[in-house]
Write a structure and sequence with these properties.
Elements: E1 7-9, E2 25-28, E3 33-37, E4 40-44, H1 54-68, E5 74-79, H2 85-90, E6 96-101, H3 104-116, E7 122-126, H4 129-140, E8 145-150, H5 159-167, E9 171-178, H6 184-195, E10 200-207, E11 217-223
Parallel strand pairs: 5-6, 5-8, 6-7, 8-9
Antiparallel strand pairs: 1-2, 3-4, 9-11, 10-11
Family: Belongs to the class I-like SAM-binding methyltransferase superfamily. RNA M5U methyltransferase family.
Active site: 179 (nucleophile)
InterPro entries: MeTrfase_TrmA_CS (IPR030391), SAM-dependent_MTases_sf (IPR029063), TRM2_met (IPR045850), U5_MeTrfase_fam (IPR010280)
């Protein structure tokens, strides 16, 4: 017997569209999926990003947080936060978390997931990272110790986001999680971090999220 939880219909001429372009129609089941990761529960909307291999994703995120060397005086800037996975996992180690994502439903999920997991030191903001990141950094003030974790899609980050991160001197460590490190724009992100921001690539840790394929996620540690 095949079960669906949930099942949506997406009438569209394209291979993939967002809910705003091609509205979803719920045919069966609940409106959201629920997933456990590293002992935390996460609600996932149809348009929200969540790693499909949750066991390997747990290793990926714990690897990133270990490299970040977080402390209780740290504010974690979680760029492209999705449903809040990294920020919520990190919340127990830091003073506060600020997560940013362009997908409004993902941010709603992140806020719900923070409440669901009794996380009170995390804030999530919906918007384009190139616009929101500078505003968030100005709001944190010059006295904050900030560690940035960026987890963009295959095309990497907009150069203005990298510029804002480079200009923020409180950021002495940056974790870049890349699903396609050989993408031209992603490589340009790395060059910009090192050239403009005076970061140095200190360590790269591969995590095999998709066994028996050619794809490997990379966790890169940049330090000033």
């Amino acid at each position: 017997m095949i079960t669906f939880a949930p099942l949506y219909l997406v009438p569209s001429r394209n291979v993939r569209c967002t809910n705003e372009v091609a509205p979803l129609t719920l045919l069966h089941g609940d409106t959201h999926l629920m997933e456990d990761l590293s002992g935390f529960a996460f609600r996932i909307s149809p348009d929200s990003f969540f790693q499909v291999n949750s066991q390997a994703a747990s290793i990926l995120y714990e690897t990133a947080l270990k490299l970040a060397n977080l402390t209780y005086t740290t504010t974690l800037l979680d760029v492209c936060c999705g449903t809040g996975t990294i920020g919520i996992l990190a919340s127990r180690y830091v003073r506060g978390v600020v997560g940013i994502d362009i997908v409004r439903d993902a941010v709603k999920d992140a806020e719900h997931n923070a409440t669901l997991n009794h996380v009170s030191n995390a804030e999530f903001i919906s918007g384009r990272a190139e616009k929101v990141v500078p505003e968030v950094i100005r709001g944190l003030g010059m006295s904050s110790e900030i560690v940035a974790v960026v987890n963009p899609g295959r095309s990497g980050l907009h150069e203005s986001v990298i510029h804002a991160l480079c200009e923020t001197k409180q950021i002495q460590q940056l974790i870049y999680i890349s699903c396609k490190a050989d993408n031209a724009n992603t490589l340009q992100n790395f060059v910009q971090l090192c050239h403009e921001g005076n970061f140095t690539l200190r360590k790269v840790s591969p995590v095999d999220l998709f066994p028996h394929t050619t794809h490997t996620e990379l966790v890169l540690l940049f330090k000033r």
